[in-house]
Amino acid sequence: MLKFYVETSRPKTLIASFAPIALIGAFHFKAMMDNLFLFTFILLSSLVIQMLTNYFNDYYDFAQGQDTDLRLGPKRPFQRNDLSKKKMQKGILLLSCSYFGFTLPLIQRIGVYGIILSIVCYFLSIYYTKGNYSLSKLGISDIFSFVFFGPLATSITGYALECQWQLVDFLIGILPGSFSTILLIVNHLRDEKEDRINKKTTSVVRFGSEFGKRLIYFFVSLFLINFFLIFPLNFFSIVIFFISFLSAIKFIQLFRSSCKEDAYQHLLPIAAFHFMVQFLLHLFLICILNI
């Protein structure tokens, strides 16, 4: 039973919530070590809210009849009936309680900002999928993915650690925000036909697959340009940027070949792998500069 709960949390995608918190923690290393308990709970709350979003996504997609045999992705445990409705609800309740418990140190630290953020994130995790006016049906889930798994996550964490707002915290969030959105757009491209049938108006359904492809090119360019807004020009940053650039070019090549073959279902793990590569390169450079 546990393996089905783990599968529903989609552990391979949790890099999206882990990366922004880890990057900002490394950047503010001394403050992170001074507030290690706070940082750990921020990281846990970030991971759990992504898991909750995945649980709500599976639950409401199936309940609203949107998980059909047309889906190109793997069948989900709830769709396969490996998890009953009651067991899904228990999993959601447990994760919900854990999430609000993990946010308590953040609320204690930053007060009303923490309360508002915790509640907004929770309701967005529900209404990412639920109802006729969900984020995914309105075609604005890409925006929220970029903001909440990118600049907002790093800015709030940086503020909690240092007790001040800094532009660099916002800029650091552009990398994880960009790749989180790329992962989401790849999903939209893969599921375009099914989403049209189910009247799920993602950005790809609303504006077309070419728009989705251009968005991916935009976000790859954005995080590459942003590199030099964060890091000073020196030997290490130039070497890391060169490797990062080569990785981005390779990803674009694989993406273009997938577009030609209409094989988006194979692109998601590739995108996740390149996200991990870019994250590790940035993390390594931050650590080097902090020595």
Q: Radius of gyration over alpha carbons?
A: 19 Å
Sequence stretches where pLDDT stays below 50 over 5 or more residues: none
Helix and strand composition category: mainly alpha
Helical content class: over 70%
Given the C-alpha coordinates, what overall shape results?
A: globular
Number of domains: 1
SSE order: HHHHHHHHHHHHHHHHHH
Number of helical segments with 4 or more residues: 18
Strand proportion, as a percent range, falls in under 5%
How would you characterize this protein structure?
- Helix content is 79%, strand content 0%.
- The chain is mainly α.
- The longest helix has 28 residues, at 36-63.
- The relative contact order is 0.12.
Short summary of the structure?
With 291 residues, the chain is mainly alpha-helical. 79% of the residues lie in helices and 0% in strands. The protein has one domain.
